[in-house]
Design goal:
This is Small CPxCG-related zinc finger protein. InterPro entries: DUF7560. It contains one helix and three strands; from the N terminus they run ββαβ. The chain is an alpha+beta fold and 51 residues long. Strands 2-1-3 form a three-stranded antiparallel beta sheet. The protein binds zinc ion (ZN). The site of zinc ion has 8 residues, from loops.
Length: 51
Amino acid sequence: MTGGGDLTFRCPDCGEAMAVNESMRDALLDHGCVVCGSTVSAAAFSPAEPE
Ligand SMILES: [Zn+2]
């Protein structure tokens, strides 16, 4: 599979980590963590690590 998530989101509050794309990042920044609802900042995102 190619495309899709190119960032890794890790919630600073609940610790949930997931691969996200740019539109998902924007949604998280707008609405908060999908798991715990905590406010998300840009610092919670990092480039996805290749495996
Ligand atoms: Zn969370």
